[in-house]
Design a protein that fits this description.
With 240 residues, this protein is an alpha/beta fold. It starts with 10 loop residues before the first strand and ends with a strand. The chain is built from four helices and 14 strands. The radius of gyration is 16 Å and the shape is globular. Strand 13 and strand 14 form a beta hairpin. It has a single domain, classed as 4-Layer Sandwich (Purple Acid Phosphatase, chain A, domain 2), CATH 3.60.21. Helices cover 15% and strands 29% of the residues.
Length: 240
């Protein structure tokens, strides 16, 4: 665990990924509405999108605008990681900065953009986030390479990564690998994973790491509860 102090506040996170919004009015857009509804209903402190919010870099501006509108319904911060479908290339949904209220006063959406990964500190939630965006369609990306050690600052440390969890030194999938060693040596409290359509916790100790599943495929998200007395608790929650 990143911090053994017992003064960290309780925090509830809605962890989702792989919504794959394609065109305005499709069922995937309906799934995002359901995600926003659930976040408000459960009064979560933070929403994490662990990659592939959009199906591709070619989605129309109205789809991007729709996603922004749904996030603006939320009073809590939203952190979005570009994945392998909606990677951070020229012309991508995240490259159209005029559509995102990121630089406006009071904006609640943060997109991880720095190639080497970046830290986002949310003092009101008592959380430090780290995420490293996928930058191209090449399959040699290492989503957790370069993750820094946790800070000893009395906050929860949560990383976001989009890729395949692997334990074999010669994995069947050679793309977007996230190794077991990278997870367990990170020292962080929770790793929010995306890229796999089913809910699955791949590591329990010393670092909890889970795939939330895809709302478009399994109809669910993960609810993550962080508390000193119970540790990191993760459960699958149905949107249907």
């Amino acid at each position: 665990m990143a911090n053994k102090e017992n003064n960290r506040p309780r925090c509830r996170i809605l962890h989702t990924s792989d919504l794959h919004l394609t065109w305005l009015g499709d069922k995937e857009c309906g799934n995002l509405v359901a995600v926003a509804d659930l976040a408000n209903q459960m009064k979560v402190d933070l929403v994490l999108v662990a990659g592939d919010l959009f199906e591709s870099a070619r989605v129309e501006d109205d789809v991007v605008g729709f996603a922004v509108q749904q996030f603006q319904r939320l009073p809590m911060p939203v952190a979005v990681l570009p994945g392998n479908h909606d990677c951070l290339v020229s012309g991508s949904p995240y490259d159209r900065r005029e559509l995102w209220p990121r630089f406006h006063r009071g904006a609640n959406v943060h997109i991880f953009r720095k190639p080497e990964g970046e830290i986002l500190t949310l003092p009101e939630q008592g959380v430090v986030l780290w995420g490293k965006p996928i930058l191209s369609y090449d399959d040699d990306a290492r989503p957790m390479a370069g993750i820094p050690g946790p800070q000893n600052n009395g906050q929860w440390h949560v990383a976001v990564a989009h890729g395949y969890y692997v334990t074999n030194p010669s994995p069947y999938f050679t793309s977007y690998n996230i190794t077991h060693e990278e997870i367990v040596t990170s020292g962080w409290d929770y790793i929010a994973l995306g890229h796999v359509v089913n809910f699955r916790c791949v590591c329990e100790e010393p670092v909890k790491a889970c795939y939330c599943g895809s709302p478009s495929q399994t109809g669910g998200v993960a609810i993550v509860d962080l508390a000193e007395d119970t540790g990191v608790q993760v459960s699958s929650y149905s949107l249907r």
